[in-house]
Input
Amino acid sequence: MKKLLLRFLIMALPVAVFWVVVQTVVMQLIHVGDASNALVYVFGGVLIIAVWEGLAFRAWVLPFIGRVFSTSVYGGGYSAQDDPLLALAARIRSSKDSSLLPEFLALVEQDKGRARVWSELAALYDDTFHNLPETLAALLQGAEHADSAQDRAMFLYRAAKMRFSRMGDSAGARELYARAASLYPRTVYGRKAARME
Output
């Protein structure tokens, strides 16, 4: 909060200085009858403020907007407290209790179109239970059910990469790369898969 207040004061400082200059120097020049010099001061002050505010906007405001945007779009804007699926995934990770998986799968079924659920399921199978076949199955299900073409292509790409690098199945990987490239050629992962065929 202190940092935000300091940045606001730094952004407001040129406006305050300009106001003082206008009240003292420019108004005196206008009263004396030297309006052309007054305009030079006003124009110079406006130019300095515009440059200063532009730099401050570029340095502080745009990165803040970018962080908020990227958190809400790419991070999903979800936290474990807000999302029962993520809270359950955190519980499963910490306890390594596979008996909680049916409950997790029931939550997945309720929201099949969201890519995050399939990513979480694949991560649980891979990182927590070290079960590559189930991880692959989760990725392939994500490729079937995810709402966006970009997400479906991403799941196919991840499944192909897993088949090739971790399961040693180069033929299966090529088939998945080809499927991603042909079904989703205009997505980032579809283009990446086309290069991998």
